[in-house]
Amino acid sequence: MAFGVLAVQGDFREHLQALRRLDIEAIAVRTPEEVAAVEGLIIPGGESTTIGKLMARYGLLEPIRELVEAGKPLFGTCAGMIVMAKTIGSAAEDQPALGVMEIAVERNAFGRQIDSFEADIEVKGIKGGPVRAVFIRAPIITGVDGRVEVLAEHDGRVVAARQGNMLVLSFHPELTDDPRVHEYFVTMR
Would residue 78 show up in a list of annotated catalytic residues for this protein? Predict the structure, then answer.
């Protein structure tokens, strides 16, 4: 069965390529039927308000929530992390979101586009040394409840977490050649 990448906005092509480099069947997901047909789903980075509005417009919010309830893995990077969060700091009042993960996030916590950077991050559960993390207008996790496991921090700020079958990162593993984060995701069940 295929894994899907939400393909309404953002860097979905890079996630599709990352999965395919692992010889994993990967499809671009744009409809509720495609959400129902995948083994797991990635919500890529991009612009969180736009992604949320397009998910609402295309009727994807409830099917993605059902995917999570069915125990299938859901992975959000950067903007994907934002739309998965229960609480979004500095969110527009009309910003649609999934609200499936018990985290609070702050958008653009590391600054603007010009403040983008890379760093080597130790991520719990990822073997083989640090992960090269690409931060672009990255959010941070400002709060978690007891069901959420913090997987990584950078400069004392939470940048990766897991709650059951859900994984979120502030950074973009799809912009590197390191397959380990995507390998970790596809084994989450």
Answer: yes
